[in-house]
Predict the structure of Ribosomal protein L11 methyltransferase.
Amino acid sequence: MPWIQLKINATQSTAEPIGDLLMDLGAQAVTFLDRHDTPVFEPKPGETRLWGDTDVQGLYPADTDMQPILTILRDAQMLSEHNYRLDQLEDKDWEREWMKNFKPMQFGERLWICPSWLPVPDPNAVNVHLDPGLAFGTGTHPTTALCLEWLEGLDLSDKTVVDFGCGSGILAIAALKLGAKRVVGIDIDPQALQSSHDNATRNGVAEQLELYLPADQPRDFKADVVVANILAGPLKELCDVICGYLKPQGQLALSGILNEQAEAVSNVYQEQIHLDPVTSCEDWCRISGIAKFS
């Protein structure tokens, strides 16, 4: 069973109320993570010790409609436009299992995603060396695989690309390795931007990859290709933002979408995008197409 993880950046005063509200709103689990690796000391009896800058994570079944939950959090002034992130997760302990299960994987004819600690199967292929750390994206999840296969099938020579929700940087780096000349990666999580930078450096493409938090992203940048692997709710909510990155006749791919959510997401994008047939992998799918505007 797949899951949705809601991560909210909080403060010492807001973290515990956010966690309580997430539980009230049906979270299967809530955890608190220190964003600065500050040691946790044993709390006094009856005391909950939280960090000054804390990520609160709530875990929900993947078929949960997250929009009402996000609305309640906004109304309670616990959520703003740029302080949260939604990710799709497999039904396993990601941080413990990914190294064991992460092996070299081929996408299309040319592209291989290879763990940085293992030798590449084909030195003549387009090889992306990856160490995702705690950021999302190795290629093992169906949504990432769908996006990698789509990118591998494009002619990216001399193209510009936006990776919206870049995570580990896997899609951005793959695009550069496949011939793109410039990629802009955007993510709400500073840890993801650091992971993307580290992986880009490992692959020798750091100078071509620009990384931004949403508040700092370039406002006038238009790309030939945009890929957004996030979740259905944010994809619908951010349709105009995502399509706004496209040049006329630019190519778009969206993933992080459950099969049963495809129609709803397609309905939001069909006014601006000539849509291709939906492509599915296990419980998830990819929506792609070409911008209608010229």
Observations:
- The longest helix spans residues 190-202.
- The longest strand covers residues 246-258.
